[in-house]
Amino acid sequence: MLSNNKIIIPTSYFGNIFYYKIIYDNKFEIEINDFFEKQTIRNRCEILGPNKVLKLVVPCKKEKTQIKNIKISYSEDWRKIHSKSIEYSYRSSPYFEYYEKKILSIFSKKYTFLTDLNKNIHELISECLKIKKETHYSSKYQEYKANYDFRQTNFFKKKKFHKYNQVFSENKFYSNLCILDLIFNLGPDANKYLTNIKL
């Protein structure tokens, strides 16, 4: 990876393992001045449920604007749906009780802007993973060289990462899920797992 250079990545709603591997290896800046794109990591994550991979989506109001201006919609109680889905999917994982209060506290606050929600999530995940790097957010949109620019990357593209024990993966391992899958299943060894990933 590009560990001695700053890369640019999109803001994320509970970014996945690939997303946090990039953060773990690089100096980085989070883009908040690009335009919002549907069906991306900006407002969506994937967790492992009892029967399938579940997609959790934060509903947004006006979508044709810069990401920093995107407001969250509360026309449905998505916070309850997401918190209950996470709890149901991971309550039997080895480290759920250790992180439960901290992680689920995210859903107790009603955020106006998506970027504020994502910022608090990122700070929380960084604390869980013991990532001590300073996080910078873009002040304006600018061009980056292609190999430093991850803004258009499909983070949901499946990656063949090393297996670890998952709650509902008796017959199949699901790679590159939401970072919560790694944290709840590996706990303090999650950062060691990220270190050992080869991209």
Task: Give the SSE order as H and E letters.
Answer: EHEEEHHHEHH
Q: Helix amount, in percent?
A: 25-40%
**Strand numbers in spatial order across the main sheet:** 1-2-5
Question: What is the count of distinct domains?
Answer: 1
State the shape: globular
Radius of gyration: 16 Å
- Mean pLDDT value: 93
- The total of helices stands at 6
Number of strands: 5
Give a written overview of the molecule.
This protein is an alpha/beta fold and 199 residues long. It has one domain. 31% of the residues lie in helices and 11% in strands. It has a three-stranded parallel beta sheet, with helices on one face. A two-stranded antiparallel sheet has the order 3-4. Strand 1, helix 1 and strand 2 form a beta-alpha-beta unit.
Fold blueprint:
Layout: E1 6-10, H1 17-25, E2 27-31, E3 44-48, E4 53-57, H2 78-90, H3 96-104, H4 114-129, E5 136-137, H5 179-186, H6 190-196
Parallel strand pairs: 1-2, 2-5
Antiparallel strand pairs: 3-4
TL;DR?
This protein is α/β, with parallel strands linked by helices and 199 residues long. The chain has helices at 17-25, 78-90, 96-104, 114-129, 179-186, 190-196, and strands at residues 6-10, 27-31, 44-48, 53-57, 136-137.
What distinguishing features does this structure have?
three-stranded parallel beta sheet; two-stranded antiparallel ribbon; 5 strands
